[in-house]
Each structure stands twice: as structure tokens, then as C-alpha cells.
TrEMBL record:
This is diguanylate cyclase. The lineage of its organism: Bacteria, Pseudomonadati, Pseudomonadota, Gammaproteobacteria, Oceanospirillales. Signal peptide: none annotated. It catalyses: 2 GTP = 3',3'-c-di-GMP + 2 diphosphate. The keyword rRNA-binding does not apply.
Amino acid sequence: MKNEPQRTSTLPNGNDIRLPWHLRLPAPLERDFADYFRGSVASVTPWAAASLVALLILALIVEYTISPEAAAVTWRPRLLCVMLIVATALIARRADWRRWLHVSSLAVAFAVALTGNWMGLNVDHAMAFGLFLQTPLAILMACVVLRVPFHLAAVSSLAMLGILVLTLFGSDRVDRDLSLVLLLLSVASASMSLFGQYIYERLLRQHFLSENVLFQHRDELHSANRILENQATVDGLTGCLNRRGMENRLDEVLHGFGRGGVSERITLVLFDIDFFKQYNDTYGHLAGDDCLKTVASIPRSMAQNSKDFVARYGGEEFVVVLVDTSLKDALVFAERMRTRIEQLGLPHTGSRISQVVTISVGVASAGNCDNDATNLIKCADEALYQAKGAGRNRVAYMSDQGRVVTL
């Protein structure tokens, strides 16, 4: 027996989206990624800033230990760099300032590189040439520590290397062979730093795309679930809840009854259209569907409370659940609803009590019946049965004493 081929998902997951070599995304995604990138960098910038400040202070201590005269020259440039680093950390902590984060980070990198060049020319010490290595350190800092975007980092690195070339070969303070060695070290360090930043940003962009695609899948799934839920709980003809939706909602409101969720009674109004079978026999099922939609629109328009709802209980029967409504107010609601439907004047020659469509209504309150959906519906059904027995086109209700009273 042959093995059945395994089914694989055809949905994209972000990892199957190819990034161009230059990493640029379409404009809308690029703007979103810029915010995403700044947010990820901002979370680590304060720690990176603290590390850089500690390194600068340590460098100044070492310089003072080796040569107090050298430290007298270097402490001001070091202080300038510390101030810029602290400013960058503050910018990272404020969401409304973060659009300047990369600019501030580049300012720190250029300050470190330029002050290194200046100190290398002005410090009178045999080891002063080591200060020129602040340029590759600045590039490393921009790419790895402060995480400047690759394109900005590449352009800035070329600029810093160019300034280093002019400084080394435009001055007689540094030997030509030593200048060449320093430049080669700087280029090698910058190349590795930029390569690392390129790989990091590529992976981050891939992760961003994966999250973006996953978010779209979740959004589509949520929309599909809502559509399915509506299809499962909403009556397609009248737009009211169907019986399943009514039972779920009624259980929810009854669950909160007596527990502080509802301040007054929950009242259920059950009604059906008088002699609806004869209406269908006389006018046809299409006209019957139109009649159902028209009748259902009346209680839907009258329900004002956000917790109230109207449901099609079955066939021509409807349920209106009124929350935070006393039995007295519910009876007023039911009578107004009955009157408004009668005043629609929908012709009904098959009716034995009127020439227009009418309804019979039964009302029951959760305070008069057990706080159970089945019992509440049963009480309302008994009242509806009494309304029909009393001649239809009227309202009946279950009283506080458990007796059915007809209005």
C-alpha cells in the first residue's frame, strides 16, 4: 500500500518571502519596519549607552595612568561623547522622540571618530597613534551596539573612513607605513561590522515580514470566525438572532441575574403572528417571508438597551429579551409593539380576527419564574397560549402570583 503524500500548508509564513539584496521593502511596509526597527533598538539603547559611557570613563582612567598630560587633552572630547551618549539614551526612552534615535546614534559615532582623529594629532605620546583606531570602533559601535540601519551605517562608515584617510595622509604627525596599517585595520573592521549589521537587519526584516503575515492570517481568521459565528447564530431572513443565538444570549444575561450584573428584572416577551399559516396559504411563501421581515423590524427598532435583543424562536414565533426592565415597563413595550404591528396595515384576509396582520404576546419575568431559560420561556409560552385563547391580538403575562393575566 502506497503511503499517502503528506499535506503541506500553502499559506505564506513570511519565511518564504524573498528579500531583495538591498533589503528595501515597498513604501508602506518600509515605513512600518522603520518604526518596528526603532522600537527594537530603543529597548536596548539605554544598556548600550551605559556600556559606552563606562568604556569612555575607563579609557580616560587608562590615559591618565599612562600620561596625565595626555588625559589633560582627551578629557574634553571624552566628555562631549559622554554627553551625546546620554542624550541618545534619553531619546530612546521617549516614544515621541524616537524618530531622532538613529540621527543621535550617528552623531555619537561621528563624535567618537572625529575626536579620535583630533586627539591622535594633538596628544604628544608614543602611543597616540592608537587613538586613530576610534574610527573603526565608532563604526563597530554604530553597527553592532547602537544598531543604525544598514544603509545609513554604510554611508556613514565611508564618510568616517574618508575623514580618517585625510587625517592620516594629510598630516606629518603619523608615519606613512603606520598610516597604511591603521587604514587597513580600519577598513577590515568596518567591513566586518557592516557585514554583521547587514545580516542582522536582513534577519530582522524577515522576522518583521513573518509577524506581518501572521498578523494578516490572524485578522483573516478572526473575520472568518465572526462570519461563521454570525451565520451560526443569526437568522438569515430577519436579521434577528436564531434559536441557538437566543439560548446563548439568554443564558448569559440570566447568569448575571442576581449577582450584581442586572439591577432589575429580566423580562422575556414571546409573540407569534396570528394565523400565519393561512397568510402563507393566501399570499404565498415569498410574501410570508416579507411579512416576517417587516414584523421583526418593529421590536428590533424598539429595543433601546444594548443588552436587549430580538430572536426568531421558530417559524413565526419571536422572542424579545429586555434587560434591566421591570414587568410593568415590559408590558408597556409589548402593548406598543402589538399596536405598531397592527398599524402596519399588512393585509391578511385569511385571519379570523382582523383584516390585517396581528400578533399575540406572552410576557414573563425572571423574577416570577425560576432563573432558568427553559422555565422563563415556558412561563412566557403559557401566557402566549392564554392570549391566543382569549381571542388573539392581545397581550397576556405571568403575574407575581404565578397566574396568567390577559390585558
